[in-house]
Amino acid sequence: MSIACCLPVVECVYCLACARWAWQRCLHSGGYDSETWGVASAAEFEPVPRLCRLILSVYEDDLENPQWAPPGGYGMEPRWVVHRRTYEHTHGHAPTYLLYVDHRHSDVVLAVRGMNMAKESDYAVLLDNKLGQRRFDGGYVHNGLLKAAEWVFDAECDVLRDLLEKNPGYTLTFAGHSLGSGVVAMLALVAVHNKERLGGIERKRIRCFAMAPARCMSLNLAVRYADIINAVILQDDFLPRTDIPLEDIFKSLFCLPCLLCGRCLIDTCIPESVMLRDPRRLYAPGRLYHIVERKPFSCGRIPPVVRTAVPVDGRFEHIILSCNATSDHAIIWIEREAQRALDLLVENEETMEAPEVQRMGDEITVTRAHDEEQQAALRRAVALGVADVNVPSTYGTFDENPTSEADEAAPLLSDSGRRRAWDEWISRIFEKDESGQMVPRR
């Protein structure tokens, strides 16, 4: 009966698929995910270790007498801390965070800590989401993280506006780790769409640095907001690569092998191009910075290298089978390796002995290169058929009003539709003369 039902054949195919997946995962190293990316500059990566230390300071009960400070301390002035909100203040709506005015770097920083494994409220925020539950600005986001970000924004927007008015020209930076990274990524979206509540701050003055980010927004949002959201990932970190719904992980602790086998079949049988076309699928947000410090089959660590890009396909899609997958998620390791990487970047740039004027020109060049890279990512997303992605015109846009949460993104035109629109636009400006040549209309 088993042979008649072809069960042995099905079992063989299933085992071969699992073996192929396991073989690919065993040979796949975290450094392969970013091997084609460019190397980051010291100027753009400089805030990362500093913000990591600020996030670490949220864990302290008394900043005047710190107990868990990294080597060299937190590098902050306790008198510049505006206030610190604990779980007693947030009532479980958001993790612990602090508000800090960094006068040395002309920055107003809101730093959010990572998940507290002893707090049920953090689990509630993390698990408050279903596939396609929450739509925002033409894409999909994690419902629980967005609700936490909205609560923080409503609680702090007046304070942030006053601080920005008292310190004109300061940037507004949101920084967080793990669960906090998802909150600050959503907070950046909310801030951009409510700039008038922050005193009309320009978009270019809003920044977000998500350390060890959770997958919290759809691909179109991740690419469109890559100019303000930066995600930092250390080598083999598991969380940015975990595309399994988190609620399924917690519900399947007693049947984890079944979940992994199902994940095996999905990775083996479903092409990435099909996954990219699912508009509800969530990804790590914004521009990605990947710190690579280990090579496959090597003992020990290598000098860390920071690679950066705005990828569309190949955006940390597979979990790395590594003994460092969980330790690379720790904020203390991210701070340590980020500082080492920054020191090497500064050392390499100082070797070139670039004058100050040239350094300012390099910063402008980096900004321009980032803009061009984001435009290329948007075009790549359109070519791959990613839903709700529009490539802005190189000549600017006539409609700067942000869409509301309920608005749907404008549908993309087909090739023939774009051609007809182009012909109609040309006919409004030019006309044919008696010889058949195109001349401007009178």
UniProtKB/TrEMBL annotation:
Q: Which residues form the Mono-/di-acylglycerol lipase N-terminal domain?
A: 10-74
Q: Which SUPFAM superfamilies match?
A: alpha/beta-Hydrolases (SSF53474)
Which CDD domains does the record cross-reference, listed alphabetically?
Lipase_3
> What biological-process GO terms show up in the record?
lipid catabolic process
Ranges for domain Fungal lipase-type come to 109-242
Q: Which domain of life is it from?
A: Eukaryota
Mind telling me which residue stretches traverse the membrane in this protein? none
UniProt xrefs under InterPro entries? AB_hydrolase_fold, Fungal_lipase-type, Mono/diacylglycerol_lipase_N
Q: What is this protein called?
A: Calmodulin-binding heat-shock protein
